[in-house]
Amino acid sequence: MTDTSCEQSTRPLEQVLGQRVVTTLVRADQVELGDFVDSADGLIRVREIVQRPQYWTLAGDPPGQAFRVAFHPNGESPAPRTQVIHRRNCTVRVRRGVSRFGRLTGHSKRVTSHNPVKRGMYTLVDGYNSACSCGWKSSTVHKSKHRAGEAWLGHKAGQLTEAAYAANSALLLIATTEIVHPQLPPVPWYFTNTARGDRRHGHGIATADLKDLPVDQARAVLAAWRQVLGLTVDEAHSWDKDKSAGGIVHTLRGPRRRLDDMRLSLNGERGERLILQAAYETALKAEETAANTAPWQDAPE
Ligand SMILES: [Zn+2]
């Protein structure tokens, strides 16, 4: 993966934020106001975070449509257009302006005058070179120090993004797929790693649960990703089964009827795994509940 590919995927956001954008992975409880996160409606810029003991709600608006926060005497503002709910300790992808990142070890800015010539008491320069202590060098001569500094920030954003891709191969697969197939429906991914510290370092899993979408929409999203990436239907899940055939399942909330249960997965060549799932359940009628209660569950009175 080169710097160019991440530039392509984040370019509209760079226009919105007016600076280079980093793609990285953070825990849901480390998402900050102003970050862009994935939702089933596409990218949203977070402007409300609701913290509960287990689940955090990240709410916001699509980039470019963000509500302009104007001074209002009673502090009223329209509700965010869309939201996504994650467990607080699960890892999600965020896009964040590079200026909000601190020092990056091994990378310090080297901006120097290009071709300086002494003329009396003045030094004339032909522009500025931008380079980094890691050995990176900008291929162009920049008109101003500021431009040269911006070029280095672009390099820094690229390095931070590359580090996130290296840490989770599923993130890399998704980012690459989105560039090649921009029409793919957006999905609220969350990420885990298969193992840390051993030879499988960097092998990642990306999961998306679509059960908050209407069932037909979830089917359409799964079908689109299946077609592009060749995800396969997991055994025991009823992608093509008749809806009415759904049986009784025992859940933490008691026995429920499973209406639809779809699950696609893919094992990629760099150890990555993608999982797209949606399970729809409904409560049973009172008489069915008593008849179907599992031995470890108390039937409701
Ligand atoms: Zn560098």
How does this model look, in words?
With about 300 residues, the chain is an alpha+beta fold. It is built from five helices and 16 strands. It has three domains: about 5-65 and about 80-95, Roll (SH3 type barrels), CATH 2.30.30; about 110-165, no CATH class; about 170-290, no CATH class. Helix 1 crosses helix 3 (about 170-180) and helix 2 (about 145-165) packs across helix 3 (about 170-180). The N and C termini lie far apart (about 60 Å). Zinc ion binds near residues 107, 132, 134, 136 and 155.
Brief account:
With 301 residues, the chain is an alpha+beta fold. Helices cover 24% and strands 31% of the residues. It has 3 domains: 3-66 and 81-94, SH3 type barrels; 109-164, no CATH class; 170-292, no CATH class.
